[in-house]
Amino acid sequence: MGQEGKGFTEVMQGFDFSRILIALQCVAAAQASIDETWEYVKERQAMGAPLAQYQGVSFPIVEFETLIAACRQLCYHGLALRDAGQPHTAESAMVKWMGPKTSFDAIHQCILTFGHYGWSKDLPHQQRLRDVMGERSEAWLDSPRGLAADRFVSAIEGVVAEDFDFDEPQELEAPEDPADALNEIADEPDTDD
Fold first, then answer.
1. Where are the beta strands (DSSP E) in the chain?
2. CA separation (Å) from 123 to 144, 179, 190?
3. 67-70: long-range contacts at Cβ-Cβ below 8 A with a sequence spacing of 24 or more?
4. Residue 120 phi/psi, 5° resolution?
5. Which positions ≥6 away from 179 have C-beta within 8 Å?
């Protein structure tokens, strides 16, 4: 248990950490499917050669191998910032969107590579796809508008967090146009010199 009256603050601070962990869960599921797909395309023969030798088969797998590795590294970077006591809200927001989306797309590509058999319950890909899809519960983030809204919130948190006391009621005015608020934040001089 924590201190009385501090629960909301503690819960909010935990979101950044949990978002990164959820993204890593999705990345792990995608990596397992990618690894199994590599084994399959090395063994499966078509026109006298392994499927892995055909660019149309191997290039999409390489693409998702790369994207999953990038997402994993961004997760690790966010965790390193957290361990160092540094702000990591932006990294958390990025992987909250990138982890489930990229993992879903990667697993879907693996299923397509296996063909119709990829959808069967004999293979784990269809279950992983459903598991990762469950982490995409905030589907609005897949839209450009949703991502812009998430960036807006992250930008506001980065500016306001130092002066914001979560334990005291606050009177805040919502900006009429979020784009104007983002432009104001971007135009502020950097005072970290």
1. 45-46, 49-50
2. 34, 46, 52
3. 67/102, 67/105, 67/106, 68/27, 68/30, 68/31, 68/34, 68/102, 68/103, 68/106
4. -75, 160
5. none
Q: What residue has token string 């519960």?
A: 137
**What is the DSSP code (8-state) at residue 190?**
P
Q: CA 84, 159, 89 angle in degrees (round to 5)?
A: 40
Q: What separation in angstroms does the CA of 116 have from each of 48, 56, 121?
A: 21, 17, 11
**What mean pLDDT, rounded, does the chain reach?**
81
Cα–Cα distance measured from residue 120 to residue 123, given in angstroms and rounded to the nearest whole number: 6
First CA to last CA distance, the chain: 39
Place of tokens 């959808």: 119
pLDDT for 124 beyond 80? yes
DSSP lists the bridge partners of residue 50 as 45
Whole-model pTM: value is 0.71
What is the C-alpha to C-alpha distance for residues 110 and 143, in angstroms, rounded to an integer?
Answer: 24
Residues 66, 30: contact at Cβ < 8 Å?
no
Report the C-alpha gap between 106 and 100 in whole angstroms. 10
| Interval 22-38: pLDDT, tens | 999 999 999 999 999 99
Number of C-beta neighbours around residue 189 at 10 A: 6
The DSSP secondary-structure symbol of 16 reads: H
Distance CA 108, CA 33 (A): 9
